């Protein structure tokens, strides 16, 4: 039995050496979140505050939560327990902010919008989901349900208004 286990391990090591010892997750690039380098070594509060900004996570808090999860999963066993706990705390903070946020506006319609921190974007359906593109042929940026709050419509001949905003004549509650 021990010989069989050794042989299996040897075959796996040979395959790993053959592909360069790198995993697929190391080659993943992101176009939906833009965390600054070194961010995930910070305190949970700083990670959450940075990831919640619309210039870092244009798709909303859901994209921020997924990015923190992806980073923790990609690090795998190499991530120390203390750092993993800090990342989990950052996720919990982001999840609490998302739960406490008012309901996001309903998705409007495909078309041209101005993002709070990006250049004008084109919003369209990509399969079952909404996505933004900063230019034709640019990679899509996933637009989560809470990401619509960062968009302002660019109507053909009118003034710019927020997607979820009420008309100016309605008093604030």
Plain-language structure description:
The chain is an alpha+beta fold. The chain has a domain at 111-162. The chain is built from four helices and six strands. The protein has helices at residues 2-18, 44-51, 61-75, 81-100, and strands at residues 111-115, 120-126, 129-133, 141-143, 151-153, 161-162. A six-stranded antiparallel beta sheet has the order 4-3-2-1-5-6, with no helix packed on it. Helix 2 packs across helix 4 (81-100) and helix 3 (61-75) packs antiparallel against helix 4. Mean pLDDT is 75; it is low at 158-173.
Helix share bin: 25-40%
Radius of gyration: 21 Å
- Summed up, the helix count is 4
- Number of DSSP E strands: 6
Average pLDDT rating: 75
Shape: globular
Question: Major beta sheet, specifics?
Answer: 6 strands, antiparallel
Outline the low-pLDDT stretches.
158-173
Would you tell me the structural class of the helices and strands? alpha+beta
Which helices and strands appear, and what pairs or packs with what?
Layout: H1 2-18, H2 44-51, H3 61-75, H4 81-100, E1 111-115, E2 120-126, E3 129-133, E4 141-143, E5 151-153, E6 161-162
Antiparallel strand pairs: 1-2, 1-5, 2-3, 3-4, 5-6
């Amino acid at each position: 039995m021990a010989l069989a286990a050794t042989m299996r391990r040897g075959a796996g090591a040979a395959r790993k050496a053959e592909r360069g010892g790198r995993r697929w997750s190391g080659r993943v690039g992101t176009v939906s979140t833009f965390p600054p380098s070194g961010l995930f070594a910070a305190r949970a509060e700083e990670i959450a505050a940075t990831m919640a900004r619309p210039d870092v996570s244009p798709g909303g808090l859901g994209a921020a939560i997924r990015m923190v999860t992806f980073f923790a999963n990609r690090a795998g066993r190499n991530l120390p327990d203390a750092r993993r706990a800090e990342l989990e705390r950052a996720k919990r903070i982001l999840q609490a902010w998302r739960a406490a946020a008012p309901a996001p506006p309903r998705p409007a319609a495909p078309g041209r919008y101005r993002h709070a921190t990006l250049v004008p974007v084109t919003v369209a359906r990509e399969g079952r989901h909404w996505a933004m593109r900063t230019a034709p042929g640019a990679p899509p940026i996933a637009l989560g349900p809470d990401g619509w709050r960062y968009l302002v419509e660019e109507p053909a001949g009118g003034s710019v208004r927020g997607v979820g905003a009420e008309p100016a004549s309605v008093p604030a509650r």
